Amino acid sequence: MKLLPVFAIVLVFSAALFAADDPNLPEKITDVETIVNKANIVAYYQGEDGKAKVKMTITSKRGQKRFREFIILRKDIQDGGDQKYYVYFLKPADVRKMVFMVYKYTGKNKEDDRWLYLPGLDLVKRIAASDKRTSFVGSDFLYEDVSGRGLAEDTHELVETTDKYYIVRNVPKRPDTVEFSYYNVSIDRKTFVPMKMEFYDKNSMLYRVIESTKVETIQGFPTVVKSVVSDLNTGGKTEMEFTNVKYNINLKDIFTERYLRRPPREAIR
Amino acid sequence: MICSKRLRAAVLVLAAAFSSVVVAQQEAENDFAAILSNLEVHGFYEIRSGYRLRKDKYEKDMSIMEQRLQFALSSYIDWADFKAKGDIIGDMVTEQAEFDLREAYMFTMPLDFMDLKIGRQILTWGTGDLVFINDMFPKDWQSFFIGRDTEYLKAPSDAVKLSMFSKWANLDIVYTPQFDSDRFINGERISYWNSNLGRLAGQDAIQHTDKPSRWFRDDEIAVRLYKNINSYELALYGYRGYWKSPGGQNAAATQAIFPDLNVYGASVRGDVGKGIGNMEFGYYESDDDRSGKNGNINNSELRFLAGYVQEIGKDFTAGLQYYVEYMTDYSQYKDSSPSGLTRDRDRHLVTVRLTKLLINQNLRCSLFTYFSPSDKDVYMRPNVNYKVSDNLAVEAGANIFFGDYPSTFFGQFRNDTNLYTALRYSF
Asked: How far apart are CA A129 and CA A213, in angstroms?
């Protein structure tokens, strides 16, 4: 009988131990740089390379819809670093077979290189677009949403850790170059997939939200297969859906003028 | 026995031959079936109409009035891609129905480092924006000036393009077995300066030409050697052929001619500050008149271009180019010039492009301006294009020419100034 209280104490103690070390909850990381680095890799650098077919539905405030469809190929030069993108347009009809190519540089003082191929003119054009916060193909997504915002552009602060998410606040180092004052990202603690991004304007009003609405594990990589951006100012929204996602496809160097003029079969089929 | 052995051998040979024919036929049938099953059809339907803003006594008031249906067919088999693109045009200015086959080619990759494109194709290279030095592929200036889509500035070539790639450099060789001239201004739809008459002319004096047209003898060859170094694009060019638009006339001054021309050039394009800069150079060697003494044939020229493009605001880009043509044997030209009117030694040209996208990039407003301080003439191309939906676009624009003199490059087209609108449905 004397053992009972001891047993009870052990029980309570071990319960407390279990609560602190719940096997259903991933380990709690407190270093914000580790968190944002992992999330950046998961969002933009899965595998050595990748391919996906992307469908965009752009819906205006009045409900008018426009559609974009393209195939995107990506190759990483370095994880978390430089990348090459190749975008082959399928829809709408007037931009069909157009190719957009980007050499993305994450180092400072180097703008991305961008090319556009116009098949009707057989013209390889160099694009002088330095502002990454302009709309991507007329959608509510910006160039930076598609290819990733350089981590060094912002300071990061872990503001909260919930059961499911790390909530990180990102404040731009050069506020004059962007239209937001800061944005919060909710990063899944298990997968490190950024599930929600909330952008606040210069008056600290929420005006833009990007949500990952469907995540699947493909070849072992957690992958956002559906995301939606809502612009609260204009009332417009764009849904982006990824299909035929493949990683580590052994992409050769197709990021050249040769393949701009003549898209490789792996790009278009 | 011998007989039956021979018979057996003969039967075997026949059977083998027959089966190989069957196999070949089957392969061809398979290829054909594959081409059909991989076939994609796209295109557009367009209505375009435009009027002259000034009275032109040599041309119709309608500058453009046409319906156009374009079909683009593409397909592929294991070892090749195929493309055919053609326009059916109902042209109310010429009062004719036309078919313009713009592309019809086969593309294949015979070796890993080699591409081959054979047939009718659109070809473009060089760094200029609506200014060409080393791009010696045919242009359609008529379409450009009457307000067709910019795509029609490029006329097709019937050619073989062989491309080879290596880590040191890449090489393109384009062989055109029969000279493809520009679709130049001949007075049919655009009035122009006729130096023989010493006045503007149009349908009353349609330019007759004597065009080199013998297959494999009156041919053209264009080469480009290029390489990218740290995202700077470097290229060397060479061309052997003819002046693409008439570059002289016969001694009796009855026909315009296309004298021999060789071009040697180079270009570079890459990051400059916040934008993209480019430079291009070309030496035009007028091979039928190397001394420059023949007043009926174009002088040799040096041509130089420098350009810069930068994004200057949200969805707003500006481009600036400076271009100069310099006659290498000007004094000989002046001495031998048949008419009293002579041009300056240099022709300087400045171009400015402004492009602004609005309404979620569905509205594109652009203005391209050529201005020549030496010729004292201007050519402006304002254009507004709005995408009503993913398939439907409406457009309005103008081609505006000014000039102090009637004989200069753009000044001669003063009376061709026009305004146009268009509606295009893409599928």
From this structure: 30
Interval A141-163: pLDDT, tens? 999 998 889 899 999 999 999 99
Euclidean distance between CA atoms B45 and A239, whole angstroms: 30
Using a CB-CB cut-off of 8 Å, the residues of chain B touching A94 are: 44, 387, 391, 393, 424, 426
CATH code, domain carrying A149: 2.50.20.10
If asked whether residues B3 and B105 sit together in one domain, one would say: no
Distance from CA of B111 to the nearest CA of A (A): 14
Tell me the CATH number at B263: 2.40.160.100
Which residues of chain A does B390 touch, with a Cβ-Cβ cutoff of 8 Å?
Answer: 66-67, 91-93
* Domain enclosing residue B43, as ranges: 38-426
Here the contacts of A258-265 (C-beta below 8 Å, separation 24 or greater) are: A258/B115, A258/B163, A258/B165, A258/B170, A259/A86, A260/A99, A260/A101, A260/A115, A260/A117, A260/A124, A261/A117, A261/A122, A261/A124, A262/B81, A262/B107, A262/B115, A262/B117, A263/A88, A263/A97, A263/A99, A265/B76
Question: Which pairing describes strands B209-210 and B256-257: parallel, antiparallel, or unpaired?
Answer: parallel
A226 domain-assigned: yes
A–B interface: beta-carbon pairs under 8 A: 93
Q: Are residues B43 and B152 in the same domain?
A: yes
Mark whether B294 and B196 lie in a shared domain: yes
Interval B75-120: pLDDT, tens: 999 999 999 999 999 999 999 999 999 999 999 999 999 999 999 9
